[in-house]
Amino acid sequence: MDWIMEQQTGWNIKVILCMGWHALDNVVLLKNTIENSTVQALDSAVQKGILVICSNGNSRLGNIMPPIDYLAVGGYNDRGKKDRNEHVPYPDEPFGRNGDGHYRPDLLAPRVSLTIPYCESMENIGVVSYYEGTSGAATLVTGVAAYLFSEYPELNSEDLRSILVEYADPLRDYDNVAPRINVGRVIHGLEMGDLPKRIKHGLPGVTRVDHSSIKSLDEIERGLALSSLVQHQLCTRQELWEFTEDESSVVRRIAVFALIKPINEHERTIYWNRLNEECEGGVRGWYTYGLLQDADILECTKWAQWATDMNWTVRWCVSEYLSKYADSLPQLEKTHDPDLIQDKAFSILQWLKIR
Question: pLDDT value at position 129?
């Protein structure tokens, strides 16, 4: 970062793409974003007016999301179509409030089957590969930002961030309020000299909390408190089980994560029952990951039933379980494309019919 800041003026550095800002963090346990080492390192760039663009996360398995100072980019499934009416939400997309209480992400961009030059092993002319996830979505938005900064040098990072969000358009019937990027509308607005008002982010909704906040009515405050209790090993197993029934999926994710796995057959039965009852994909992911530990062949039909779950981690666990018994059970090929989930699970669903 020191080197980047030294070169900022000479190289006209206006944007930084940060895809792994949370790489050193536990993605489930909540904390204020300023405690993140990468956030601390990037603070000098933010203070100098550089636009930091980052990926918001690839799965609902985690709780942590980027600070409000960054343009956080989530994803949607464009199905490879130009027609925006064909675009649909990505079913395992994380969104909500971060550890500071701020809503994330700001913006959505395509995240499925992004075409790039073939790069699996060596360059192969005429062949393409595909990139997935919000790292890809954030990269697309960073390219747009670099182009717009070049074409409209009078723009600063706050203006560009505001116009990208204001001229984006929402996905219909979707709980995530972050809109889809619409570059055409952005360029038209800039050509017309129609700059939107700057986004007002307000003060942090949540500051540091203590363990008593576990009783707060605010789910993020409860999540922060439970995360601290778990980190300091101040939560009993019985208390963790009680938190698995919290109304907030943020809190439930932390609790099931902290349980790690069933410790006896009674708990294993509870895990399966809770998995069947759980409506939130990320929490289901932690239940299946716990069940994957010590799983045996006798549970094969139970596992096969989850081959089409919309949560990536659930399907990953099913695939890992089946691979343990490759000689006797059908296999599940992993896919990040929601439109291919049923196809990849076809042999398993057929196998289930004759069980």
Answer: 79
Strands annotated E in the chain: 15-18, 51-55, 71-77, 88-89, 96-97, 103-104, 107-110, 114-117, 128-131
CATH architecture of 2-191: 3-Layer(aba) Sandwich (3.40)
Query: What is the band of 115 on the pLDDT scale with cuts at 50, 70, 90?
Result: confident
**pLDDT, tens only, 69-91:** 999 999 999 999 999 999 999 99
Task: Indicate whether 110 pLDDT > 80.
Answer: yes
30 Cβ contact partners less than 8 Å away, ≥ 6 residues apart: 63, 64, 99, 220, 223, 224, 227, 250, 254
What is the separation of C-alpha 112 from the centre of its chain, rounded to a whole number of angstroms?
Answer: 13
**Backbone phi, then psi, for 313, in 5-degree steps?**
-65, -40
Helices 134-151 & 183-191 angle (0-180, nearest 10):
20
Determine contact, residues 51/16, Cβ cutoff 8 Å: yes
Q: Is 62 helix (H, G, I), strand (E, B) or coil?
A: coil
Q: At what angle do helices 134-151 and 157-166 cross, to 10 degrees?
A: 120
Q: CA angle, corner 192, sides to 187 and 198, nearest 5?
A: 75
Q: In this predicted model, which residue has the larger pLDDT, 321 or 116?
A: 321
- Cα→Cα distances 264→254, 267, 268, 294, 295, Å: 20, 5, 6, 10, 12
Is the link from the previous residue into 105 a cis peptide, with omega within 30 of 0?
Answer: yes
Give the residue extent of every domain in the chain: 2-191
Distance in angstroms (rounded) separating the CA atoms of residues 347 and 102: 43
pLDDT, one tens digit per residue, over 253-273 is 999 999 999 999 999 999 999
Pair 314, 282: CB distance under 8 Å: no
Beta 51-55 vs 15-18: how paired, if at all? Answer: parallel
Mean pLDDT of the chain: 93
pTM over 0.90: yes
Instruction: Show the tokens assigned to 259.
Output: 């349980």
